[in-house]
Automatic annotation (TrEMBL):
Protein name: Type-4 uracil-DNA glycosylase
Region described as Disordered: spans on this chain: 15-49
Pfam families: UDG
GO BP field: DNA repair
Keyword Hydrolase found: yes
Length: 304
């Protein structure tokens, strides 16, 4: 199926009028007044327009070695120019210095079963008291694409799986439109999905900085185990954890960032898109950028 045909199908499936899809490069800077997350505060500030594409590479003391992707060779701050996209020209500002890490030094040695058990038993923050169960993550353990969301909602807390319910269905449709799935498939097609927080905040409130900080080492270890070739960060708190940026999604999307050398694309959380369907067109643009970037990574990486 051609790209144009796939795009037409996806737009029809998501109910997006073709005229809403911007022509040419994505509308990155300052598009939309939103935080793009699942947990949307009513007084989210309007984004301020920023200059064209830039790449951010967050320095992180926790080891996560990319699997031979070109991202690894590019190094910190190296620009990524996706085909047909404006080249990245400068590092994006990171406005929050990394805080002290919780004492989780042992996580770096854990394999998947041990990490899952560690999460299931975790009582490092108060969210453990209200959870039905932890929501660890699902998907291919060596997926080329890793999807990072925010925090479990009611359905996720009940089922123990990220992105279920209506937002999960929308995510599945978005993934399907670019040939990806959460169902069993080779690592090129089956994604790995994880949330930034593993326990549900009560009443779907925003997670606190302390809760995010306590839980982040689990996500860091998941990324290190998966070694994805592309990370798709969905929503404000995923972005805060991975890029150490509190800028609105509208200012961060439309360009390729880096996390530990891995290309990272920012987009809206599906729950936000359900509330703001007109932004599905921008989400589609983000997916196109992610797909182009992942294709470039795959082309340069060893066969898997
Ligand atoms: Fe532990 Fe994370 Fe749950 Fe807090 S949210 S109790 S850090 S697993």
């Amino acid at each position: 199926m051609s790209w144009d045909e796939r795009q037409r199908r996806m737009l029809a499936e998501l109910g997006i009028p073709p005229w809403l899809v911007p022509a040419g490069p994505p509308a990155a800077a300052g598009a939309g007044a939103e935080d793009g997350g699942e947990h949307l505060p009513p007084d989210a500030p309007d984004p301020v327009p920023v200059a064209a594409s830039a790449v951010a590479d967050r320095a992180d003391p926790v080891a996560a070695v990319p699997r031979g992707a070109p991202a690894a060779a590019a190094g910190a701050g190296a620009p990524v120019a996706a085909p047909g996209r404006p080249a990245a020209v400068a590092p994006a500002p990171l406005d929050a210095a990394p805080g002290p890490r919780p004492g989780r030094g042992g996580l770096a040695a854990l394999d998947w079963p041990a990490l899952r058990a560690e999460v299931a038993a975790c009582t490092a923050c108060g969210l453990c008291q209200g959870r039905t169960q932890t929501v660890f993550g699902v998907g291919h353990p060596q997926a080329h694409w890793m999807i990072v969301g925010e925090a479990p909602g009611e359905q996720e807390d009940r089922q123990g799986e990220p992105f279920v319910g209506r937002s999960g269905q929308l995510l599945d449709s978005l993934l399907q439109s670019i040939g990806l799935t959460r169902a069993e498939a080779p690592p090129q097609r089956q994604v790995y999905i994880a949330n930034t927080l593993k326990c549900r905040p009560p009443g779907n409130r925003n997670p606190t900085p302390e809760e995010l900080l306590q839980c982040e080492p689990f996500l860091v270890r998941q990324i290190a185990l998966v070694q994805p070739r592309l990370i798709l960060a969905m929503g404000r708190f995923a972005v805060q954890a991975l890029l150490r940026s509190s800028e609105p999604i509208g200012r961060l999307r439309g360009r390729v960032h880096r996390y530990q050398g891995v290309p990272l694309v920012v987009t809206y959380h599906p729950a936000y898109l359900l509330r703001n369907p007109l932004d599905k067109a921008r989400a589609w643009d983000d997916l196109c950028l992610a797909a182009e970037t992942a294709a470039a990574s795959d082309a340069a990486a060893p066969a898997n």
